[in-house]
């Protein structure tokens, strides 16, 4: 399912659990939008579970629906645990035979560790109350003895990470149009979280947490690190630094001050990954190209050099103007001064405008507009990028 994949790091001491497979920085389908804000934390576990608008499953129900958590039903694995494919009846939610009823994804928590339980509870807290077309739907949970599981809608196309970086016949390169569609959907999900209806900071936006349905609609998953946003006259939330290296905003890393603009920076990194087809951090690249933001920044600031960062697999599908606008948006999101970053509402507006511009130029030019061809110019050795 992809909700908890990726290399995470931690600034506090390692969690007592051994769920250190998820190492963190520093220390960790409805179209209806819910109008209720997530109540300020802390709330007790009992209050969270009682207020969640989801089904409480027994362990045996989920064991049956996944065919006893068979290895061949594993969808993915991460620090939280493994994700299994299962089936339940659409009306009763009782276990169903494979291939019948509703497909679900069941995330099973590794049984060691307090941190894992806290992240499990955070998912129930947020996804148990918030509903939006661009958030993955939480169907239910299981809390029984030492067992902690989460049940989600099944996302048949998996994670954005797989489509951008996995090679093989199952994962075809995403077209420019699909990349922009996914970017817009993910941006709408973040904009909703930042809105007055939710007031949530996601804190772990990355390609592995963006899941795709059969029509490539993007939905945010894995709310284990989400936090309530600042209240009253406060400008930020002070918290230990958690997230994923390569995606975390520099001011958050430096101070632990978390704001909605921290998510905007992470969105900029993901948008840059979508434009370039490169990972945020990749030590297999030549020296000077390990950190995507540092390597790409000099090219983002020059309109005529944008082609140097574009994914060669795009093959000139985008117009030069479209590529320049998307790169300029990524650069704004990646501003070192958080005050200069756009809000996610502004990001959504920019991406919608970009889609409208692409549709207009394509129809006006019968598809023969000037394209941005990443492989049109001979490759020269790229200079070492300046620091982000």
UniProtKB/TrEMBL annotation:
Binding site for ATP: 108
GO MF entry, a single one: ATP binding
Keywords, ordered alphabetically: ATP-binding, Kinase, Nucleotide-binding, Plant defense, Serine/threonine-protein kinase, Transferase
GO biological process, one term: defense response
PROSITE patterns named among the record's database cross-references: PROTEIN_KINASE_ATP (PS00107), PROTEIN_KINASE_DOM (PS50011), PROTEIN_KINASE_ST (PS00108)
Disordered: region residues: 1-45, 357-388
Protein kinase domain segment(s): 69-360
Record's compositionally biased regions (Basic residues): 370-382
Assigned EC number: 2.7.11.1
Biased amino acid composition, Low complexity: 10-38
Tree of life domain: Eukaryota
Family: Belongs to the protein kinase superfamily.
UniProt-recorded name of the protein: non-specific serine/threonine protein kinase
Source organism of this protein record: Eragrostis curvula
């Amino acid at each position: 399912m992809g909700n908890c994949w990726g290399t995470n790091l931690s600034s506090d001491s390692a969690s007592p659990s051994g769920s250190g497979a998820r190492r963190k920085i520093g220390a960790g389908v409805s179209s209806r939008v819910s109008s209720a804000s997530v109540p300020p934390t802390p709330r007790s576990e009992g209050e969270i579970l009682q207020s969640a608008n989801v089904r409480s499953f027994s362990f045996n129900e989920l064991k049956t629906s996944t065919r006893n958590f068979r290895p061949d039903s594993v969808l993915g694995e991460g620090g939280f645990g493994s994700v299994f494919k299962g089936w339940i009846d659409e009306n009763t939610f009782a276990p169903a035979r494979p291939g019948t009823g509703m497909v679900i994804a069941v995330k099973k928590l590794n049984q060691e560790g307090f941190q894992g339980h806290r992240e499990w509870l955070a998912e129930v807290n947020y996804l148990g109350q918030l509903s939006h077309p661009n958030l993955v739907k939480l169907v239910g949970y299981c809390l029984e003895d030492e067992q902690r599981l989460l049940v989600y809608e099944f996302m048949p196309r998996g994670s954005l990470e797989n489509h951008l970086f996995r090679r093989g016949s199952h994962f075809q390169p995403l077209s420019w149009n699909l990349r922009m569609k996914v970017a817009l959907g993910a941006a709408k999900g973040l904009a909703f979280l930042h809105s007055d209806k939710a007031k949530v900071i996601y804190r772990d936006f990355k390609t592995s947490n963006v899941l795709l349905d059969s029509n490539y609609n993007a939905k945010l998953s894995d709310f284990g690190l989400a936090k309530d946003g600042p209240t009253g006259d406060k400008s930020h939330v002070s918290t230990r630094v958690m997230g994923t290296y390569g995606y975390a905003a520099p001011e958050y890393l430096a101070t632990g001050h978390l704001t909605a603009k921290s998510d905007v920076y992470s969105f900029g990194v993901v948008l840059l990954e979508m434009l370039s087809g490169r990972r945020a951090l990749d030590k297999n690249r030549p020296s000077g190209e390990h950190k995507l933001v540092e390597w790409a920044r000099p090219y983002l600031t020059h309109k005529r050099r944008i082609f140097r960062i574009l994914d060669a697999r795009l093959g000139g599908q985008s117009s030069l103007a479209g590529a320049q606008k998307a790169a300029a948006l990524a650069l704004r999101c990646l501003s070192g001064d958080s005050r200069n970053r756009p809000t996610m509402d502004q990001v959504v507006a920019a991406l919608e405008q970009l889609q409208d511009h692409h549709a207009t130029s394509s129809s006006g030019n019968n598809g023969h507009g000037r394209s941005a061809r990443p492989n049109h110019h001979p490759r020269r050795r790229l200079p070492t990028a300046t620091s982000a």
